[in-house]
């Protein structure tokens, strides 16, 4: 507890120097909702003028999103938005650029920007275990996960960088159940995809809790990754896109805005409005995630 308090104090007191963030792209959404389904057909270059009638957000470096707008807005370019909204795009504090053992993080789905989430709500089908979903709110306290070593492995060293290719588990902070998968079918996919659940007691589960970290950047070393520069595998950087491949089933952690819980498929459910999280056999863009808010041990 004292260690966590010290980490929070360090994060609050760290001096962070803001540089002008680079623009990546305008990311369009549908339904005049900046948090709605992505509509990549209408994505645009940083220099393009985003006219009234378009909804979405500007993506700047380090996967930051700014200028989230519905259809009623003044015209602008993402190039200028990333410059003007620099306060929202500070660089990470020194020593906090990577995901490490013992860090508590929120994992964000790249396409929908929903966060990996769990709660004390069990599935009514399949395994009957604790449900895992993707939640649209940034500030929901049920979206924090503890990063730790794979099942049966020696305990990782607190603050040690997690290497791409590592076997890891994610423990849900509030319920202390591990992110898990198996051969049960997910509730909304008609038997096509695997169920993802929360499993275990007080952080102890089984082999079905282990996931393989696959970094989209491959073997590219980051500037501050000394171990990688010396021949080790690259470390998991906070702005990296990653996939989590389930060790037992070889399926990928996945969500999609088209598979959402609503009053038709889940009447009076406490998870209406959240997206199903499942495990799919194919490596696709809806299996891409990145680390966002949290307490990072350095």
UniProtKB/TrEMBL annotation:
Boundaries of every MIR domain copy: 96-150, 159-216, 233-294
Annotated SMART domains: MIR
Superkingdom field: Eukaryota
PROSITE patterns: MIR
CDD domains linked to this entry: beta-trefoil_MIR_SDF2-like
Keywords in alphabetical order: Repeat, Signal
Signal peptide: 1-18
Pfam family, one: MIR
Protein name: Secreted protein
């Amino acid at each position: 507890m004292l260690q966590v308090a010290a980490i929070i104090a360090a994060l609050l007191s760290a001096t962070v120097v803001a540089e002008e963030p680079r623009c990546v792209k305008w990311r369009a959404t549908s339904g005049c909702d900046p948090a709605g389904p992505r509509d990549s057909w209408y994505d645009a270059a940083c220099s393009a003028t985003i006219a009234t009638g378009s909804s979405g957000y500007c993506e700047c470096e380090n996967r930051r999103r700014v200028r989230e707008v519905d259809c009623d807005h003044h015209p602008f370019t993402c190039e200028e938005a990333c410059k003007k909204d620099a306060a929202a795009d500070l660089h990470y504090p020194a020593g906090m650029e990577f995901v490490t053992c013992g860090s508590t993080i929120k994992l964000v789905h790249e396409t929908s920007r929903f966060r990996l989430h769990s709660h004390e709500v069990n599935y009514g089908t399949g395994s009957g275990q604790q449900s895992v979903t993707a939640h649209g709110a940034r500030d929901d306290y049920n979206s924090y996960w503890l990063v730790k070593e794979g099942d049966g492995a020696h305990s990782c060293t607190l603050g040690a960088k997690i290497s791409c290719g590592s076997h890891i588990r994610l423990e849900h902070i509030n319920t202390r159940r591990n992110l898990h998968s198996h051969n049960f079918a997910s509730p909304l996919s008609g038997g096509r995809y695997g169920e993802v659940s929360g499993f275990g007691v007080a952080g102890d589960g089984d082999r079905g809790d282990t996931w393989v970290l696959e970094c989209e950047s491959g073997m590219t070393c980051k500037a501050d990754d000394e171990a990688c520069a010396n021949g080790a595998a690259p470390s998991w950087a906070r702005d990296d896109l990653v996939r989590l491949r389930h060790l037992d089933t070889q399926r990928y952690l996945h969500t999609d805005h088209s598979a959402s819980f609503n009053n038709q498929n889940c009447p009076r459910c406490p998870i209406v409005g959240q997206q199903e999280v499942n495990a799919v056999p194919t490596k696709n863009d809806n299996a891409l995630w990145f680390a966002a808010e949290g307490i990072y041990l350095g």
